[in-house]
Amino acid sequence: MMSRMKRLDVKLGALIFLGALVFLPLWGGCSVKYPKCGKDADCHAKEFCINGECQQCRDNHDCSAGQVCNKGRCDMVSSSSGAAGCTDDVQCPANQSCIDGRCRPCASDNECGDGGKCNAGRCARPAGASSSSTTPPKCNLEPVYFDFNEAVLSSDATSTIERNADCIKKSTGHRVILVGRTDPRGTEEYNLALSDRRAASVKDRLSRIGVDSGRMKTVAKGELEATGNDEGGWAKDRRVDFQW
After folding, report:
1. How far apart are CA 136 and CA 182, in angstroms?
2. pLDDT at 48
3. What range defines the domain where residue 94 resides?
4. Which of 14, 54, 108, 139 is the most buried (most CB within 10 A)?
């Protein structure tokens, strides 16, 4: 009797195993099919899962120089004059800047705004300066600085944000760009993600103290414009700039 029960147990186990082999591939077949997606990993390299569909970009920073993000696709920006249209230097090629709404090489320091310098066709603008041709409010927006490898706000950073928030609230009708930056240490990919987190931290804090999130946009530049070569310089690179 015990021998018969053992044989039945063995057969039952074999049937369960065979059943699993049959149904597991079917379960695997329930995954979403490209370009549909549930997460970024379902998409091709350098694509993002946005609203359940794989797309090239979330914002302009995901696109190459001279392109803008248009409904999830990176498109070249152009105008009838042949120059690329723009609202920020980040949208322009490496040897050009956004001047009067168009990407073109600068010819002199005068075209780069207050404190700006024209260097090989590109404007090097001071921290907090904007490439927009719109006249910004007169109140001062200070950079927010971060500790090494951190996106968490310090007490000093929080105080700076609160002062900037007062300025932004008074300046109705103006939008502000939060530009995240890092020092040059680390990989380009890591620094880009870190600068994005820093800009997001500042935006979140501003939202919590009453600044309309619709008036703010974050841009991650990573180590792109870092200038420091020692600890003192690197500390200045680790910041979020405010641009009108």
Report:
1. 26
2. 85
3. 77-124
4. 54
pTM summary value? 0.48
Which secondary-structure segment (H or E) carries 180?
Answer: strand 176-180
Tens of pLDDT, residues 24-60: 444 444 567 888 888 888 888 778 888 888 888 887 6
**Do 89 and 43 sit in the same domain of this protein?**
no
Q: d(Cα 190, Cα 200) in Å, to the nearest integer? A: 15
Q: Which tokens hold the place of 60?
A: 């302009």
Considering only residues 51 and 127, tell me which one the structure prediction assigns the higher pLDDT: 51
Residue 189 is assigned to a structural domain of this protein: yes
What's the token pair of residue 139? 């109140």
Whole-angstrom CA distances from 28 to 23, 25, 31, 54 are 9, 5, 6, 20
**Domain tally for the chain?**
3
Q: What is the dihedral of CA 76, 180, 136, 90, to 10 degrees?
A: -20
Q: Which residues pair with 242 in a beta bridge?
A: 178
